[in-house]
Every structure is written in C-alpha cells, then in structure tokens.
TrEMBL record:
<protein>
    <submittedName>
        <fullName>Xylan alpha-(1-&gt;2)-glucuronosidase</fullName>
    </submittedName>
</protein>
<dbReference type="InterPro" id="IPR037054">
    <property type="entry name" value="A-glucoronidase_C_sf"/>
</dbReference>
<dbReference type="Pfam" id="PF07477">
    <property type="entry name" value="Glyco_hydro_67C"/>
</dbReference>
<keyword id="KW-0378">Hydrolase</keyword>
<dbReference type="InterPro" id="IPR011099">
    <property type="entry name" value="Glyco_hydro_67_C"/>
</dbReference>
<dbReference type="InterPro" id="IPR017853">
    <property type="entry name" value="GH"/>
</dbReference>
<feature type="domain" description="Glycosyl hydrolase family 67 catalytic">
    <location>
        <begin position="141"/>
        <end position="472"/>
    </location>
</feature>
<dbReference type="InterPro" id="IPR011100">
    <property type="entry name" value="Glyco_hydro_67_cat"/>
</dbReference>
<feature type="domain" description="Glycosyl hydrolase family 67 C-terminal">
    <location>
        <begin position="473"/>
        <end position="699"/>
    </location>
</feature>
<dbReference type="Pfam" id="PF07488">
    <property type="entry name" value="Glyco_hydro_67M"/>
</dbReference>
<dbReference type="InterPro" id="IPR029018">
    <property type="entry name" value="Hex-like_dom2"/>
</dbReference>
Length: 702
C-alpha cells in the first residue's frame, strides 16, 4: 500500500485550500502591512501577490508610520494594546501567537505582538473572505488553545524494502526525499509549509519514527540538508524536529553501549544536540520511539522510559529543546493463546507508574486510543493517568485503518469527539455536534476533557497524510482531514462540520452551490459510514495483515500482535472487565470504569471492545449484536452507493480546470464501493457461518 519510489510526475501540485481565488476578498482591497520581522516579509509577499492578481493595492509601511485609508491593516503592535496570554493567549508559549481583529465600518485592522501571530491573523482574514469586511463592527481576540501543534512525517530517506518511501503513507512519495537523498528542489516543501501555516500548525517532524540506518544519519552528516528543510519551513513560523534512534550513540557514535545512565552516552547526546542547534538555532527537538515494535530502547539496560527520555531531555535542555517520547509500547510477540496479556493495557502499564519522573521538557506522546488508530476505540486512559507529566495527544491524519485515502472518510467529527471526551463527566460528556449544527468556539475545553488535559501540557501531534501526489493526499477529499486537524489544534471546540465547510469554500471558491452540498453529503457522516461497513461495535482491526487494507476477519486472530476479537460459535468480543477479564476497564477514573465494566451501561459502539457477549445480546438500540452486524454492513454499502451517485451528478458542475480532480474522486469512490461491498460480504458471511443466526430480513448473505 506504500509507494516504492518517489513520484516522477511533473504535474503541478493542486493548490488545495489556497488557490488564488481564495484571496479575492483581500486582493481587491487597499492593504497595508506594517512592522519588521521575517514572517512580516512572508505576509507582505502574500498580500502583494493577492493584490496584483485581484486589482487591489499594497503598501509596506515602516514601524510607527500612519496607515492612511487602507481597507485592511496588518500590523505588529508597538504598545500595551497587544493581545497576550491574559486575553486568551497561551501562557506556556515562548512566543505569543494571538492576534486581535478590529472591524470598524468595513475597515479591518489585524494586530499582534509577534510576526507569527500576525501571519495567523492574515490567514484568518483570508478564511473569512468578504465576511471579514462586511460583518458588524467588532473587536475580537484569537489565540490557539495550545502552543504545540505538530505533524509527524513517517518519511524514509531511502526507500524501505517493505514500507516504501513513506511508511503508512498513501499519497505517493516523500516531499522531502528522493533517490536516497534530501531533494535538491524543496519548492514543494515551501508550498506545504504555507498550507500548514494557514491552519496554525507550527512544528513538523520530518522523518519516520522507525529510524532506519539512512534516516539515522540526518543527525550527523545529514545536518546540512536538514538545515535546508528547516529554512523552507522557517518563513511560515514552523520549527523542524527529527526522529532519532535510541541506539544512535552505538550506530553513529561507535560507543559500546546506549545505556541512559552511562556518562559517555550522555556526553554523546549533548554533543549531538550542540551540533544540531549550532546549525539550526530554531530546531525543535527529537521524537523517539523506543522499546516498541523492535526499536531499541532503555529496556535493554534494565532502565525504564523515564531514564531514557530524561537522558535526551538533559542534552537538549540548554537549547530549550523538546523530547517527544512515544507511549506506543507493547508486546508485539505475545502468545495468542494467552488471554491474560492485553495489548490495550500496555501503554498504561508502562507509563502510569512513571508519572512525575519525566523532565519538564519531555512530552509523552499518547495515541488517542489504547490500540492503534482504529475507526472506533475508547479514549486512552493514559491521557488521564499522568497528571504530573507533560502529555500530547497523538492522532493519525493518514488513514491507515480508515480506508487509506482510497475511501472518502472525513475524520474531523471523530477527532472532535475525542477532544471533547471528559474523563470525569461520564454520560454527561458533550456529544460531538450533529451535521448542520454549530457550537460555540468561545467555550474553552474543560480541564478534564482530552483537549483540556493537553492544552497547556504537550499539545497535539498527528501523523501527516501528505505526499508528492498531485493532490497532496492521494484522495482530494483527504485534504479536508489535514485542514481540519490544524484548525482543531487551534480551536478544539470548533464545529467539525463547520471546518469542513471552510475547507470546501476555500478549495472550491465560486463553485456551483450544488458542489458544496454534494461534498457535504458525502463527507459529513463519512466516518460513521466507514464504521458501518467495517469492524463492528469497537472490536477493531479485521484487516489484511501487513498493509492493513481490506477485510480479513481472522487475519490477525492467531498472530503475536495482540489484536484479537475472540469470535466463536457462542459470541464475540474481548472481556476487558475487572471482574472476569483483563482489568482494562478499571484503568479509567470513575464514572467511566463503572460504565465500561457493565455490558448494560457500556456504550453500544464500544461493547465488543470491553465485553465478550452472545450474538443474541440485545443492544441499547434494541437490536441483537448479530442483526446489528448484518444491518450496518448492508447500510454502509448503500450509503457509499449514494456517494457515487451524488458525485456523478455534482462533477458536471465543476469547471474544466477541475477535471483531473473530478476524475480522481470518481476513481476513489469506485474503489470505495468495491471495497465496502467486499467488507459487507466477508463480514456478514463470516458471522452467519460462525453464529448460525439468519438475517431477519432475508437478504443475500453468501
């Protein structure tokens, strides 16, 4: 499923959500930019391009000069009127990224204390379009919910013989690397940085967390090229990070050990950090995957993860660097016969006992669920188990287990549900907004929600879905996930369907009204649609081993990976209760531990994650488990059939220059329907044969 080589297609990259026409409202006005700073220069260049394209005018003003009769003024503040942490900015950020927008009789002023904040303010005006100038008079302050908004690229410098150019990447080759080297032409990286900055992303890790031999050398002789990549991101306010191997002192430095308590190892890491920051002064830090899926780590020396993370933290601390230490640690060689070992428990078992021992510049990076980016999982209890540790929420924008960007699956609603989850509120957790509704982004996340826990701690991190494909993300609609991730990082309370509407309006400006409606019809509920025709009721996986695309109910059932469903003739599901199972349910604070412990109170969508039940168990919906499986898999295919018909009608309304995009979407929807049908037929047949219970509607099951 991964591209073995980089793309050689010279077709220009699609502009995604920043086509020239998206800048029309700004570009036809009189715009003044005032202030110094590298990013102010970036803003000035954007404004100059927009006004040249759309007939407006642009003035670059010196600090302290007047603004004349400009319709839009973008200015660095020079007094105490600047927005700051007390106005909603993040108190733990080294640089205030907030901005203030003032609208008076159609004239708009955007001001910020920092050039990065001013850049975000500029793109805010671009998103608003005409509404920026036609709205009522207002004074608004905008600030990110968290100062750390990061993307991890799983790109390999050298093409891996199994995982290809980008591990778990579905969008062609790497935008950074080709032919075993950093690309000579980084103009595509500059375009990418611009897209990310427009959504508020401010940090990017540029190589695979599974650090192979060639990628490890980015830390040493590859530094000049890393500096080139950092230079491409710098004008957009984005800091670069590297994934490093814990064994680097041995593989790169020739030391006999990588023991975190060895003085020579500590000295090697200090010297390595000094070299990196000497070359790249605004470098962000290191990302580490250790003692996980074969990656080396401190366990080899009888040490724990706090020992390992703190070793690197001490090396980067003089440079204000960060260590992102992934909590994705589990036994991937377990015996499938052993029901006492539960992969879901692993991160909590490894990290909860270490709370309070990590250095202040260590961020423990926790996947949103306890397994591995499934379409439906409970929220990882690790997020609430480390109150004295900086914790980041890790999401996956690339759709490894949600259709691999061959299926149209908008994940904004899933992420919104995760961010809103309240560890203490129980059934009172605010629901994710239904499509077509709005929510107030003025209400900050509660302190015990996922968003609240990570906001002033480690922020958000996600695995990127971009590659060198013409449409960046393989499926043009998957661009919406990259956009929504950045916007939810900035404002976790934002309406995810509203964010989808923003992306549509900017990506297809001026399109016929039916186009926007059709894309909403396809994407608004597409996450739930994918869930309908794949693994049911939170049980997860059931995918082809290795590449993870397409159905294979028993594909992982007798493997060492710990991803089991335990279906037999009597029932299905994993008993994770305290009373009779693995005890995973007991890792949650009340009231969730009690809710999950009982099959009577466990939410239907997670029932099989926490309980092994008979096929005739009656859900809260009133259906039996087996009838739910049949019904949802038929319904899922019917929905995708409607997707195909909806797009077939809408594509005729697209302009001629969108023909390639329209064709790509058509091809992907055709594949989605084929795959969804395969999922339906394989799962329904499997469970009919396993349970012996017929479909009450008498539909064809093979």
């Amino acid at each position: 499923m991964n591209s073995p080589t980089s793309s050689t297609d010279t077709t220009p990259a699609h502009p995604a959500w920043l086509p020239s026409s998206a800048f029309a409202a700004v570009g036809r006005r009189r715009v003044a930019v005032r202030g110094d700073g590298a990013l102010v220069g970036t803003i000035a260049a954007e404004v100059a391009g927009a006004t040249a394209a759309h007939g407006g005018s642009f003035t670059r003003l010196d600090p302290g000069s007047g603004v004349g009769d400009a319709d839009l003024v973008l200015t660095l503040t020079e007094d105490d009127d600047a927005p700051g942490p007390d106005d909603g900015g993040s108190a733990c950020d080294a640089e205030d990224e907030s901005f203030r927008l003032l609208r008076d009789d159609g004239a708009v002023v955007v001001q910020s204390a920092s050039d990065r904040g001013l850049l975000y303010g500029f793109f805010h005006v671009v998103r608003l379009g005409e509404a920026a100038f036609t709205g009522p008079d207002a004074v608004e302050t905008h600030a990110p919910a968290t100062p750390l908004r990061m993307l991890d690229h799983w790109d390999n410098v050298a093409v891996h013989d199994v995982m290809g150019q980008v591990e778990r990447g579905y969008s062609g080759g790497s935008i950074f690397y080709a032919d075993g080297e950093v690309r000579a032409d980084l103009s595509r990286v500059e375009e990418y940085a611009r897209l990310l900055a427009s959504t508020g992303i401010n940090r990017v890790a540029i190589n695979n967390v599974n650090v192979h031999a060639r990628e490890a050398r980015l830390l040493t002789d590859g530094l000049p090229d890393v500096a080139r990549i950092a230079a491409a991101f710098r004008p957009w306010g984005i800091r670069v990070h590297l994934a490093v191997s814990f064994a680097a002192p041995m593989t790169l430095g020739g030391l006999p050990t990588a023991d975190p308590l060895d003085a020579g190892v500590a000295r090697w890491w200090r010297d390595a950090a000094d070299r990196v920051w000497a070359r790249i002064p605004d470098f962000g830090g290191f990302v580490v995957k250790a003692d996980s899926e074969g990656q080396p780590g401190p366990f080899a020396y009888g040490r724990d993860h706090a020992d390992g993370a703190n070793l690197l933290a001490a090396a980067v601390e003089p440079h204000d660097g960060l260590i992102h230490w992934r909590a994705f640690v589990y036994d991937h060689r377990q015996d499938w016969r052993d029901r006492s070992t539960d992969r879901a428990r692993a991160a909590h078992d490894n990290f909860a006992p270490l709370d309070g021992r990590f250095a202040d510049n260590v961020i423990v990076q926790v996947k949103h669920g306890p397994m591995d980016f499934q379409v439906r999982e409970p929220i990882s209890p690790v997020l609430a188990a480390l109150p004295r540790t900086r914790v980041a929420l890790e999401l996956q924008v690339t759709q490894e287990y949600t259709g691999q960007q061959k299926h149209a699956v908008y994940l904004g609603r899933a992420w919104s549900e995760i961010l809103r989850f309240d560890f203490l509120a129980g059934a009172a957790t605010p629901p994710v907004p239904e499509p077509g509704t709005t929510t107030s982004s003025d209400i900050p996340p509660g302190p015990t929600t996922v968003a609240g826990l990570v906001a002033n701690s480690g922020g958000l991190v996600a695995v990127s879905n971009a590659g060198d494909d013409e449409f960046w993300t393989g499926h043009p609609f998957a661009q919406a996930n990259l956009y929504a991730y950045g916007r939810l990082c900035w404002d976790p309370a934002a309406d995810p369907v509203g964010l989808l509407g923003e992306w549509i309006a900017m990506t297809f400006p001026g399109a016929a009204p039916g186009v926007a409606g059709a894309i909403h019809e396809i994407l608004d509920d597409s996450w739930e649609t994918y869930e309908l025709y794949t693994a049911p009721l939170g049980v997860g996986f059931m995918v082809r081993p290795g590449h993870h695309y397409g159905p294979d109910v028993d594909g992982y059932e007798y493997t060492p990976w710990g991803t089991y469903h335990f279906a037999d003739r009597d029932g299905i599901g994993v008993d994770r209760t305290v009373a009779t199972g693995t005890g995973f349910a007991g890792l949650y604070p009340s009231p969730w531990r009690e809710i999950y412990e009982s099959a009577e109170t466990c939410p239907d969508e997670l029932l099989l994650f926490f309980h092994h039940v008979p096929y005739t168990h009656v859900l809260h919906s009133g259906k039996t488990v087996i009838q739910h499986i049949y019904d949802t898999h038929f319904e899922g295919v019917e929905r995708v059939e409607r997707f195909v018909a909806t797009w077939s009608e809408a594509r005729s309304s697209l302009p001629a220059d969108a023909a390639r995009l329209a064709a790509r979407v058509t091809d992907r929807l055709t594949e989605q329907l084929r795959s969804a049908t395969d999922w339906r037929d394989q799962l329904n047949t499997y469970f009919l044969r396993k349970s012996g219970v017929p479909d009450t509607h008498g539909r064809t099951i093979h």
